[in-house]
Batch of 2 targets.
Target 1
Amino acid sequence: TPKRARAMTTESSTMADAFTRYTDYLNQLNEKRERVVKASRDITMNSKKVIFQVHRLGKNNKEEVLEKAEKDLVAVADQYISRLIKELQGSDFWKLRRAYSPGVQEYIEAATFCRFCRMGTLLHLDEINATLLPLSDPSLEPLQINVLDYLLGLADLTGELMRLAIGRISDGEIEYAQKICKFVRDIYRELTLVVPRMDDSHDMNTKMDTMLQSVIKIENACFSVHVRGSEYMPLHGSNDPNSILLGVPDFET
Amino acid sequence: TPKRARAMTTESSTMADAFTRYTDYLNQLNEKRERVVKASRDITMNSKKVIFQVHRLGKNNKEEVLEKAEKDLVAVADQYISRLIKELQGSDFWKLRRAYSPGVQEYIEAATFCRFCRMGTLLHLDEINATLLPLSDPSLEPLQINVLDYLLGLADLTGELMRLAIGRISDGEIEYAQKICKFVRDIYRELTLVVPRMDDSHDMNTKMDTMLQSVIKIENACFSVHVRGSEYMPLHGSNDPNSILLGVPDFET
Amino acid sequence: SHAPSLEKQFEGFRVQLEESGSLRERIRAVVMEIESTARLMQAGLLLVHQSRSTPEVLERPKAQIAVLKGLYNQLAQILSECPSQYYRYHGDWRGETQTVASLLAFMHWLETGNLLLHTEAEEKLGLNSSEFGLDVEDYLVGLCFMSNELPRYVVNQVTAGDYDCPRKVLKFLTELHAAFRMLNLRNDFLRKKFDGMKYDLKRVEEVHYDVKIRGLTARD
Amino acid sequence: SHAPSLEKQFEGFRVQLEESGSLRERIRAVVMEIESTARLMQAGLLLVHQSRSTPEVLERPKAQIAVLKGLYNQLAQILSECPSQYYRYHGDWRGETQTVASLLAFMHWLETGNLLLHTEAEEKLGLNSSEFGLDVEDYLVGLCFMSNELPRYVVNQVTAGDYDCPRKVLKFLTELHAAFRMLNLRNDFLRKKFDGMKYDLKRVEEVHYDVKIRGLTARD
Amino acid sequence: SHAPSLEKQFEGFRVQLEESGSLRERIRAVVMEIESTARLMQAGLLLVHQSRSTPEVLERPKAQIAVLKGLYNQLAQILSECPSQYYRYHGDWRGETQTVASLLAFMHWLETGNLLLHTEAEEKLGLNSSEFGLDVEDYLVGLCFMSNELPRYVVNQVTAGDYDCPRKVLKFLTELHAAFRMLNLRNDFLRKKFDGMKYDLKRVEEVHYDVKIRGLTARD
Amino acid sequence: SHAPSLEKQFEGFRVQLEESGSLRERIRAVVMEIESTARLMQAGLLLVHQSRSTPEVLERPKAQIAVLKGLYNQLAQILSECPSQYYRYHGDWRGETQTVASLLAFMHWLETGNLLLHTEAEEKLGLNSSEFGLDVEDYLVGLCFMSNELPRYVVNQVTAGDYDCPRKVLKFLTELHAAFRMLNLRNDFLRKKFDGMKYDLKRVEEVHYDVKIRGLTARD
Amino acid sequence: SHAPSLEKQFEGFRVQLEESGSLRERIRAVVMEIESTARLMQAGLLLVHQSRSTPEVLERPKAQIAVLKGLYNQLAQILSECPSQYYRYHGDWRGETQTVASLLAFMHWLETGNLLLHTEAEEKLGLNSSEFGLDVEDYLVGLCFMSNELPRYVVNQVTAGDYDCPRKVLKFLTELHAAFRMLNLRNDFLRKKFDGMKYDLKRVEEVHYDVKIRGLTARD
Amino acid sequence: SHAPSLEKQFEGFRVQLEESGSLRERIRAVVMEIESTARLMQAGLLLVHQSRSTPEVLERPKAQIAVLKGLYNQLAQILSECPSQYYRYHGDWRGETQTVASLLAFMHWLETGNLLLHTEAEEKLGLNSSEFGLDVEDYLVGLCFMSNELPRYVVNQVTAGDYDCPRKVLKFLTELHAAFRMLNLRNDFLRKKFDGMKYDLKRVEEVHYDVKIRGLTARD
Ligand SMILES: [Mn+2]
Ligand SMILES: [Mn+2]
């Protein structure tokens, strides 16, 4: 049955050819995923360093600390996010999202943290995406961080702001702490309305709980500094509690 | 109080000096851990490829398939395990174990799998370690995989052997499947006595359950091929069931 | 103060997310129809286990392919509004599409005895890889699902007296299994499904053996 | 057949693992003594919260340092049998050593007002970084534990009438906190412990403020 | 202050909660008896797997139906005290009732070879849809449970030499499965149970195949 | 064969299941709007923590009550089609209704200082116990949720300079807690939520203590 | 066959299991009453946080002790039927008894300022160590639970103007804590509860500090 | 002050807790040896699946029974120091004893084809119900564990050519299962284990079916 045999061979080899294509496809996809995961880990590690740098902020070193943090942040984008951009063309941006999302979220956290400490404002997603534009090869489609990762990163930011606020209170910068408190409350309130509309709101709901705990921690700290100050207002006849609570004492006086 | 001030400054700067050292230590450690994790991921991915390659084994392509697998395995050691060796000097070998253990286990799985398919025997840890020796810079302490990772990798091997056994049965290689069955039973029995003495036997206990399931799957497959064969023995008057169960039919006859 | 811009900014996000939410709703509506069409096809194909003639069985399910094509076209239409977000919403049609792929492949095999290739599957559904394609992994999972049907098919065919069926299925499944072995899979869903295929192969081999040893096959 | 070698091989593993098991037993025995010595020191140091004079309080705990030194020497001895496996068994003495570090640092601070450095801690315990050292992270966790004791100490000192104490503690803790901020921590146990330190600082600041505002400090 | 109305309101709640609590207790007592009666029936029916004659096996379980009827009557009595709260307490007897439905259906099939209809099941238990009925989904889950028993039954019947049994069961199960297919089930417990029915069907087909290929059946 | 009655029965079931399915869909649509309205109210009420005047804060959330009323009216309408099945679908609106109850109770308390009674809550939502009422347990869970908000409220009010707030909240919460104590709760969700109320009480006591000990209250 | 002895043996087991089952039922009934009596006492004792005079508050809970005594007598009666199986059923009354011990100890302390000794607790409940005693660990857990109440008590007493209370509680708790320190606790529930006691101590110290620094105490 | 009695009491507790702690240590040491002996037996018995002759396989495990007997004697000795506290420490040897019971029962069945009775099991271990017996529930759990081994055993015996084995095992397991059915088990661990036994039974029935339908059995 030579004819049948030939037909079969043809069918066999068609199948084999097709599977060779599928094999190549899967191999390339997996290798790309690995590279993206590695880039994401690098972004995470270096963004965390930026965040720690910002926490070194004190009353008298603001400029110096932020300058270094901002410089390091630019380096994260230049060195590591640029690697992501090369990989994430076309539909890979969404297909591989789980592979790079942790890194991008940490970067968002670091970038928004720097901005808040510098200007007291929220760094907008559009601004972040604008800074990423020059990193792209003009011939390629530019990478634009998506809203979901931005919001997830923002949710983590409030944890860092809480740490900052407690530190500022110990340092006597009550007004700064109150400013943080207001900012975090605003973010929390705005997110309340946005979260249920997120693609997969499960992670985000957990983060919202943590965020509320952070808000409450800041509020409790502001409360205790307030009642302590109020106690002495009558004594000192001042009506500006903050003027008394001038933070860390000068040990040498 | 100039004297007090000086003393204090000294204390401060002593503390600062010391913490600079701690900072350097932690930074270096974290960076090394990252490099080790990345190497481990590479080892995992490439060892998995070797395992898949071995599964391509059929009745007529044994030499070709194993040769490629063995070549790829050598490449894994040369390219990726050698990177581990450079990092894991002295106490880092145990300190960073959690960072590289998944990769090493997968490598063990691949290496022992190749050996079983080639020789039907268990590749010993000493032999594996011997192949790693030449990869070390003679000036450095050689990396020697530890018993724990070896046994954890071995536990995973039985899953691959189960897959292989079912495939061999479909392919008519009953004796081969029985050989696998015996081998896996032996490993399971030996591990029964060794497992409770392992450093952290929790993971291993889970793997033992999976392993028993694998053994039972192989046994059930051997059972069904046996009863099927036995049914016709009287018919054919043969007492070698395997002679009947000559596997994959030749479609062209 | 930054408050107004913050509110405005989040308002923007809300709008954006609501748009993607309503897109999702539209996708879901189509997917539910795909699901229900696939269910109809599946119900029709079940008759293959009850010794009806293949052409007779295939008639109705085949008629549904055009329906599916229309639905996938709708899906592609919707997705064309947000190019390159295919994988953002992929989870919403993934499971159903794997079922569809398995049904198409099974029908194709029943009709031709050949494997439905990825490109052929896309063609049947009117898909186009460069815009809205059939994800390769979904297609492969579909093939595994189809493989799971074959042992049952073989058993029932033999019961109904078709003794040549095991040989054909065994040949096909052996080749398919060999082809799958070329893939390097991760420890994911596809790997798990592929792992099951070897049991299908073994079962078909057993039936083939049963038939052969009894001399029920014509010439083997 | 390979059976004999397989059995022999596993017999080798069993022996090896039993050796490491018995090593672990020996480590555990020493660690239990370390734990119990640390508990004694801790019980003694608790009196610091009950307005006893510092030298009086420190007397007994200080005497235990020599005991600890002996025990860590035993530990080092045991570990010297398997060089470079320090971190294999590290988990077995980690918690206790963090407590020890915190106790030593607290006592040192009570006595000198200075931070006990890592090298000084090793010296007190007769340890030697190149062979059997004090893990830096354990030392740092110990410092965090010590910090947790300070608010309670300050509160009780003020209650007992020592109004200068908050100023001293605040100065020390501020510097320690600043020093810790130089570290880049992972999301691990140390990070979590360090996160707690800011509350200690805040609490001490509050007590300091309470005292200062009432003019209870001599010259501030 | 508003306290009086607050207290009065909570006093009302207390009474209400206690009433519903004691109702629940009464329900539970009856349900425990249902459970134990069902267990007796189940133990009796197990003998069907040991090649006893069907009438002999059914004798004792059938006698229990009257007991069940009495118990369901008690349940209906209790629920009649709080009209329209059937579904409030439904969870308390749901599982047991599904078991009961499955036992009744199995016995009915053994006796008549037919499916026990929903109305027939209600009749056997003395239930009345308009007051206290058998929830349709519970009845359907019961059918799925019954289906799970059939493969085992077929296997044991064939072992005992009844080679015609697989054919009959297969016919029955195929029809039942097809009927279920018509329903558009939600993604819930019932759906999950029904999804399991296909494995029963497949197993029965295999037994039928085994018997058929060996020529053990008379005429099909 | 029995097939005709079988088919007829399942046809009946199909209709029944589809009806209940579409009822469920309609309920869900309304519940989603309830959820989104409640969320708007919640977001508005968050401003109460930011030292805005209560009337100003309440303005927008109060406007939403009418919306809720409309939605609950729709729900009642839908349920009126299947009398006495309230508890069959109760799970579908339960969680949202507990939230709604807590919001209404919180707003009412902010405005009047009194507890919103169950009948008052039903009135605000236009509900009617005899037809479609507010389940008592849902109302009680709502009160527990409201209690959870109070510690945070008290803390922020004091920070904003209202030193009399803790006393008022403490009185209210003590009474509420005492009233709950009268109930003999089962070991369920409500019990768990109520067990949490004691932490709210304790926290409010502590805030009250902080204010009182510093002489910041007028006269108690 | 060996079946007769097998059946006889299981018949024996059946009797045994039923006996122990009914014993358990009887124990449970008593324990539920203990639980409800303890709840009543607890509700009464809560008034201690609302500045009522101690004798007034204690009156009603003290009356319940006789009730408890009766219940424990019943329990002892039941257990006397199966001597030496105290610990077999211990888990069934353990939690409630720990609560009872904590209530008795708290009441005793409120009345006398002294710790209720283990023998005194047994006496109050009419227990007898040699037959049916109060397990020492349950007693100790009870003391830990009592300690958890003290910070709240101190806070509310100070709010109500009793500035000497913190000193007294602090002295008592310091002694109790020191006594517990002598015990070498295993790593179990009791250890965990005791570890929590230090937070109570710390909180009481802080309240004491607040009072002292404001000069609100008479003489310490 | 009351301190002396307090200290004296805690000194008593310290002694008591240390005694019970050291008792526990001694129990643990013995239990660890029981565990390791049982494991040896288990490893030996695994060979039963590898077509070795039963007497050969049983030789080594049987030799270990004497070792176990010695160890249980030690355990009884230790417990005799604190009469009537068997159930206090029961949890410490429970799991290991269930394993031991299952091994003894399996070996006994392999040798005699009969069920090892509870009294026989106690005899083998040198136990004495009136002092230190084998808890009935532990024995029953052990039987369930043994049952779990049987399907695997049957499969491997058939593969090794023993076609009569399924019949014998099926008879034994059916009787055992029926005997268990007589017990009215609580909803606990034993119940859960027994519920699993039906899967063993079903599997053995299937193996029996496979052998029977192929005419491999002699005559049933
Ligand atoms: Mn962070
Ligand atoms: Mn593997």
Target 2
Amino acid sequence: EVKVGMITTLSGGGAGLGIDVRDGFMLAVKQSGRDDIDVVIEDDQQKPDIAVQLADKMIQSEKVDVLTGIIWSNLAMAVVPAAVAQGKFYLSPNAGPSALAGAGCHPNYFNVAWQNDNLHEAAGAYANTAGHKNTFILAPNYPAGQDALTGFKRFFKGDLAGEIYTQLGQTDYAAEIAQIRASGADSVFFFLPGGMGISFLKQYADSGVGLPVVGPAFSFDQGILQAVGDAALGVVNTSQWSKDIDNPTNKAFVETFQAEYGRLPSLYASQGFDTANLLISALDKAAPSDADAFRAALEAADFSSTRGAFRFGPNHHPIQTIYAREVIKEGDVFTNKIIGVALEDHADAYAAECKM
Amino acid sequence: MIGERWINLAVPLALLAVPLYALMADEPFTITLATRATILALAAVGLNIALGIGGLVSLGHAVFFGLGGYAMGILAFHAQNYSPLEIGPLTFAGTKSMPVIWLVAVIVSAMAALLIGALSLRTSGVYFIMITLAFGQMFYYFAISWSAYGGEDGLSIYVRNGFPGLNTLVPIQFFAVCFVVLCLALALNAMLRASPFGLALNAARQVPQRVETVGLNPMRLKLMAFVISGAITGLAGALFADLNRFVSPSMFSWQLSGELIILIVIGGVGRLMGPVVGACLFVALEHWLGGLTDFWHVWLGVVLLGIVLFARGGVVGLLTGKAGPHV
Amino acid sequence: MSEPILATHALCKSFGALTATDDVSIDLRAGEIHAIIGPNGAGKSTLIAQICGALAPDAGTVELLGRDVTGLSTQARAQAGLARTFQISALAMEDTVLDNALLGALGAAGNPWRLWGRVSRDAALRDRAMAALDRVGLADHAGTRTADLSHGQRRQLEVAVALTLAPRAFVMDEPMAGLGAEGSRVMTGFLDGLRQEAPILLVEHDMDAVFALADRISVLVYGQVIATGTVDEIRADPAVRAAYLGEEA
Amino acid sequence: MSLVLIAEQVLNGLQFGVMLFLMAAGLTLIFGVMGLINLAHGSLYMVGAFAAAAVAGATGSFLLALVAALAAAALAGAIVEMVVIRRLYAAPHLDQVLATFALILIFSEGTRWVFGSFPLYLDIPDWLSGPVTLPGGIAYPLYRLALIGVGLAVAAGLWWLTARTRLGIQIRAGENDREMVAALGVDISRLYTLVFALGAGLAGLAGALVGAIQSVQVGMGEPVLILAFVVIVIGGIGSIKGAFIGALLVGLTDTLGGIFLPELFKLFMEPGAATQTGSALASMAIYILMSLVLVWRPSGLFGARA
Amino acid sequence: MLEVRDLTARYGASQALFGVDLTVAEGQAVALMGRNGMGKTTTVKAICRIIPSQGTLTLEGKDLHRLPSFRVARLGVGLVPEGRRCFRDLTVRENLLATARPGDWTLQSVTALFPRLGERAGQRAASLSGGEQQMLAIGRALMTNPRLLILDEATEGLAPIIRQEIWAAIARLRQETGMAILLIDKSIRELAQVSDRAVIVERGQTVWQGAMSDLTPEITERFVGV
Ligand SMILES: Nc1ncnc2c1ncn2[C@@H]1O[C@H](COP(=O)(O)OP(=O)(O)OP(=O)(O)O)[C@@H](O)[C@H]1O
Ligand SMILES: Nc1ncnc2c1ncn2[C@@H]1O[C@H](COP(=O)(O)OP(=O)(O)OP(=O)(O)O)[C@@H](O)[C@H]1O
Ligand SMILES: [Mg+2]
Ligand SMILES: [Mg+2]
């Protein structure tokens, strides 16, 4: 019997992501057929202080062995260091702040999704391939946004026609779009998660600027894409997962997920699914109470991922292939199609700083 | 109907009984919840001095809560990294001692309250609400982009700060610290409202022109209340940061300011125990309803609506059968 | 003739095109009741507001006990010995009658910064407040919530608060307003005795009271003092009759 | 930075201001006129956007969607007024704050219950999409020009309603003394339900109009609520003119601040840090503006009451 | 036309009226008298349905207890409330128009009665002098063209000359329009001149009522104190 504590966002505007992670995770648990995995799920309301208290609850009262579920970097930063310091294992299904990948890495912390910079780095690499020479980049002014632009610049070889930080939660981008138009750029890279991305894309499409756009998968994911609509068609985005990645695990995942929940799985669902499978693969080998053996079993990552090949780097972050996808319309549904590989077997930039 | 005196006695006892019971039943998380309620109550007790007696509806009290939190965060961060804290030409060592942190939290928030109060008190009514909100938002956006201390990600402190003679990592001991601070704040509040200052402040809320014509300065009375209020809320912020061992800009958010007001309204505006009752009820609701359904906010809303519509003067008002002051 | 306790010199105040007080110079001497009468809108309340510091005059000065107080705030003037009652009661309605009186006592003591000790247990403050309530006949209502008082009782409390200040001069804006016939009579008797303590600048439309009380009367019309004199002089003044008194008296 | 770009950005600022006014218009009406602090205004805005998205999805007609948004929000407003708000006019302001906060919770999570957790699709109709070229060579989205038009029309209509009609006079009288208005023969309850529904309807209309170029999602109303409050407080509560000027000021400050502050900091800082500092300051700009205005004029630019 | 019998009312926990009886016949002027705090204003508020009450309360046979405040007004009851209560933020003109109903009283006739209101037509009510506000309150009630006018301390704070005008106006109103009037005022002399009947309340109860001519100095001395 293992107890897993899942702290994720189930209410409010960001609930979609948490629900997908949870559903993906629970699907894998169900498919494993194991009845000795007890998952305790709690809603963090996207508030750091609530998340911390839920972690306390799970550790103190529920006596969980493994924690998982957090969507947002700032919540992860609030919960993870304390949790792993108390000897718990934490498997991240989404957030991957650089602080936890570099100097702040920990033997009990595993990231099953990506380091925050990864998809942006891939976008930079793709922009090179696509022949973009002069790009305009923008992101919200907060740590993840700053990381995004840094990540993009790390791989992009062309010039920057402009670099803007927008306000977190901004909904109107007329001014930014005017700047893009005037900048003489040949392309645009943006990282605007959630509603910000929807607003930007709609307004960008309506402005008639028409330059090619590249972005990380977050603004083009299954859950959000329908809301963006035509404005997203043809946009290239980078992702470590896509529903058309051709391997049996992924095919089965997409099918069973759709059958179980009546909707297409998203990036987050795949990450939840992989997280659960990683956990199950480790449980097959050792119990969490035997921390060293369990850790070794996790490090081995001996499970079949929806992404195909999956392994951990020395800092317990994935080394994985990141694809370039294009938004297409299949019948009435907007979705993504892989058009190439942006970065092969990509590791994050912070591994070297990690001493463990 | 119950006399307010009984409520003033029973509520703290009940708040004390919960974690003691949890200690015996070995439910450490219940102690954490009680601690959370205690700290939020402390913050709201602070606000209630400005709001309940002085009629100053501040939608910016998160500023002080956050400043208290960051006072803890920054001092402990520097202690944790063994790096000195440099402010201009001055350098300070960080610290992990609660009393020192509290002192800093109180002083910093009192100074901020003095400044914000002096500017905001030029206005009144809804304008006051909004100008305090504006200050709150300024601090919030500043904290978000202040990358030296983590920006939006906040600051994690790995080990709870220490209090001489106690092991604050033990939940019940940390609760005891918070509870004693809350009781002191309540005592201060009770003393204030009966004191000459309280009388004058109370009148300054209702008829400032009358207070002027008896030779007193209503602005200064209110400013004083605002400063005391901010200092207490700042202290609560430091404790809250210690409870979570984490600070982030969300401590500055307007939602938090709003939540503090709401705690007071639930409990009863201007009632000594209003904030305490409100905080306990809110934390309990959040905890119990959260387990029921994904859409528990709907039910939380319904309960709150019920309180407004059927309990004039908040829960304390319902129990005593009297409406509170009109704010 | 003694030094005036309170005096205005050429006070002027306009609201836009309207001149509410126009070059008003009046004074108040020890032991007297000086009544200001005049048609509605003549500028009486505006004059009082300037004397008490609620409005800044456009020109002119206000002098209290020989000192120029024009630049002082309301509370500084109150501390210097000026007590005012409002035309429309300004009282802390949620508090008890005693609390309102205590506020006055606190103002007289001049130190509201004591954060400890029950104000109601402070014998000095309490005695002072109760004495004032007693004098206006509200002692029995000390524990009543002010909001529960009738209009008339509120007027009495308004005066009581002024009394607690033991001021050097009173400025009263229509203290009889809202009082019944009996109440007015009682108040008249009361003010009559009060003038020994401190002189009263009295704005009032109740002519029975004014004629019974006033040592001097000034008549304000369109912001200007058109006449000053004793009761008989004013009663006989045709200009005053035309502008204000009508056939009365 | 070219002159044309600057002109375009000023236009953007004005346009954003008009959009803000559209969002604030209903709030001014309810807040200024009825003296009610309605935190749930943002929720009504959201209701409008969701209703529009649902109807546009079902019928494909944008105009029908707008009508639906107006109707749904007005209906929600009327119900809310009759069930909850009506009992709170005499209550302290803070009770209204708590009640309308509770309404936010109910509306937000209720909407998520009905529509799910993902953003909905609502787009500009074809006949309003794409840019047009303005004199001076500025390519400007037609839809945004249409928004400006609607905003101006709403401003004029509201001003006319409150200042020129007897209904408006009665509404304002009711704010001063509800009891007396009723005692003199005006059915104040019905009047207030009407006003609340109208304010709510305007919020819903704004939600739909703005929703077409933004994200229609749960929680979309809260940031709008704060902005709308900032706008009407800067302008002075109860003044439609104030709200309009306030909205333009906020729009210009926000837009131009976001563009020029980073540029300004680049003059004496290295570009990366300058962008960060500049945009940090830009996000505070409207709040700084608001506190400056209030310190200067404690009851807003056109506030009636001292 | 107005019939009040055994009216009781309370403010929260404290009872203010213990049984007020009062009738006003068509075209009659009735003075409601009593010391301060005896329940005159409370009676008026109950009649206008501003506060809840029990007992008999009918206007021309219609039970007012079944009607909300605004319906009572529309039946023809015009109130000049104690303390004026003008709409502070409205201009004088708007105050007059806000609740106007069609009839003989119009903006012209009211400003003819109170020329000062005409002069101040565009000014905010809050900045009017006390007396001007009082005129405005009367004018406002007249503009609803009532058949029963209730004046609660309507001459409070007015200059003698204006008070005389108002009393004259009231007398004229009675003669010319036959409007019924319920009056509360502290000046017994003037009440006696215009009223037909008097009702005296003491501690929330009617203690005396009858024709004005029957009101002896002993009675007023006993109940009103003069
Ligand atoms: N803030 C203001 N703005 C414009 N006009 C004002 C203001 N305050 C007062 N007034 C005008 O100034 C004149 C004098 O007003 P004031 O209140 O002093 O009269 P008053 O003599 O006290 O009258 P009353 O006896 O009726 O109380 C009035 O015509 C009034 O309308
Ligand atoms: N809002 C209120 N709340 C509680 N009690 C009140 C309220 N208003 C009046 N009372 C009480 O009701 C009683 C009757 O008051 P009311 O105002 O009817 O007297 P009144 O005869 O009009 O006196 P006055 O001549 O002073 O106006 C008084 O004892 C008063 O204390
Ligand atoms: Mg006056
Ligand atoms: Mg009365």
